Amino acid sequence: MIDSPALPIAADHAGRRVADFLALCKPRVVAMVLVTTAVGYYLGGTAAPIDYARFLSTLVGTALAAGGTLALNQ
Q1: Can you give the pTM of this predicted structure?
Q2: Could you tell me where the DSSP H helices lie in 1-74?
Q3: Which of 21, 25, 31, 35 could form a disulfide with 67 if both were Cys (CB 3.0 to 4.6 A apart)?
């Protein structure tokens, strides 16, 4: 059997591509934006218990918007 060097190279290329996309979205900046959003959601909320589904969807939407904005800023 002949070992095919294409598989490790393709896997390495895909891993680098994911790492590049992750670096493009700047996850540390997005994390800071999400902390600010969470605090604002908590402080702006009413006295009722937190609606966790709405809270989670707010964080996901904010993360996607911030990541996209940071990628476009490059």
Answers
A1: 0.73
A2: 6-24, 27-44, 52-73
A3: 25
